[in-house]
Structures are given as C-alpha cells and as structure tokens.
Amino acid sequence: MSESELRLRRATVYDIDYLLALQAGPEVSPFLAVGRPSTHEELLPEIERSLVEPEAFGRLLIEIPIEREWRLAGAIGFERTNRRSRIARLGPLAVHPDFRGSGLGAAAIHELARILFAEFGYHRLEATVYGFNERGMVVVESAGFVREGVRRRAYWVEPDWVDGVEFALLADELEAEA
Description:
Layout: E1 7-10, H1 16-24, H2 40-52, E2 57-66, E3 69-82, E4 87-90, E5 94-95, H3 104-118, E6 124-130, H4 134-142, E7 146-157, E8 160-170, H5 171-177
Parallel strand pairs: 4-6
Antiparallel strand pairs: 1-2, 2-3, 3-4, 3-5, 6-8, 7-8
C-alpha cells in the first residue's frame, strides 16, 4: 500500500470510542505501551491537545478508501520531544487486524514522516518497539527507519522486563528515498 492510498486525519472526540476499542483488542493491546490512556477521561486530553497543538502533538486516524468511502483502518501518533533540535517521537501505531499484512502500517508511518518533515520542519523522528514485537520492527524498518540500538530490559511488561529497540529517521533520508 502506498501513501496515496491512505489519509491521516486528526482524531476528534467522536473518535474516542473507536480508538479505545482498537487499542484494547487482543491482537493490538500487547504491542502498545502499557501506560497508554484506557478510558474516555484519559484519552480526551490527548485528543484536545492534538487539536490545539498540531505541530507538537498528534493523535491521528488512518483511513483508507473502500468502495469510494473513507474507512477507519488504524491510528498513529507523535509527540515533539525536542523543540530546538526538531525531534519528534512516533507512536503509538495500531493497525486494525482486518488490514494487517497490506503494508498499511509502513505506509502510515511514511506518510506521517513526510508531513512532519515537510510541513512542520522536523529534523529527526524516533520510534521505540518492544523487543518481542518482530512484526513491529519490520514495519518501522519498511518505513525507512534505521535501527540505532537497544534499551536493554527498559520496560516492565507483565510478567517481565523487555527490551526497547530504538529506531530513527532523518529528514534527508526520507528526501533521498523520494
């Protein structure tokens, strides 16, 4: 799937139920950060912040055209982590199980990277994937990110500590790819 076959749009309060259901699904939940918002009350401030601070924070929905209508297929986010050095961290990425294996995750990451570099002037994007999430690492690398290292046993995911594999993409790397 290519970026031209999807679109990203800001989540609104009307999308909260979809986002909560998506991330709570048994095929998605184990791969997302444990401390993520899990209630309407916890997610609402993130949605509001995304709408008020669009260059610094985003909770976006992934939509694809099906039978001439845009349908929800997942979600992706980002947060600025360093204003001066123009760095943002991607995540969370959640693709609905019905759309797995189509390249949608990598295409969504690539499209978000294009937006963050071209429209918001970021220099560097970073992402962390749990060490046990082989599929997630393939998706991030397919989007052009380079593996930079491992944060050994950095995250507590019941019932054990797990590694965080660090990836990054620089603006000129995306430009060179294009």
